[in-house]
Automatic annotation (TrEMBL):
It comes from Actinokineospora globicatena. This is SHSP domain-containing protein. Belongs to the small heat shock protein (HSP20) family. PANTHER family: HEAT-SHOCK PROTEIN 20 FAMILY MEMBER. It comes from the Bacteria. InterPro entries: A-crystallin/Hsp20_dom, HSP20-like_chaperone, Small_HSP. Residues 23-135 form the SHSP domain.
Length: 144
């Protein structure tokens, strides 16, 4: 899996522009953990305060796109924020998945602000044993 190498640069730029302008229209990226657990990859995204209905997942070829929107907090007339550090707006992240993953069987769950995706390893990519027929009746099994 590959991720965006410019994520840290975006974070620093946001801090600089937010300090100068109060808020900046481009929201930060969503933090992510990814690991392999047995025959599947697990990817978790932090999306606190995001309504599950505001999350979109798309797979096109081997590119998985996660898009989420955190709507700004409602403020009544006459309310003036003193501090507004929680970003709102649209968050998006793309993961480039290897050919060995089964993108047709991705499952997603959202619990307490964490979106967890489970991506199984494709059957064709799993190690398997191949039987070799010998000249006699005996067969020898070799790991492939």
């Amino acid at each position: 899996m590959r991720t965006d190498p410019f994520r840290e640069l975006d974070r620093i730029a946001q801090q600089v522009f937010a300090g100068a302008q109060g808020t900046w229209s481009r929201p930060s990226s969503m933090p992510m953990d990814a690991y392999r657990a047995g025959d599947e990859f697990v990817v978790s995204f932090d999306l606190p305060g995001v309504d599950p209905d505001a999350i979109d997942l798309d797979v096109e070829r081997n590119v998985l796109t996660v898009r989420a929107e955190r709507r700004p907090q409602d403020s009544a007339d006459g309310v003036e924020f003193q501090v507004a550090e929680r970003p709102s707006g649209v968050f998006s992240r793309q993961l480039f998945l290897g050919d060995t993953l089964d993108t047709d069987r991705i499952s997603a769950a959202y619990d307490r602000g964490v979106l967890t995706l489970r991506i199984p390893v494709a059957e064709r990519a799993k190690p398997r044993k191949i039987a070799i027929a010998a000249a006699g009746d005996d067969q020898k099994v070799i790991n492939a």
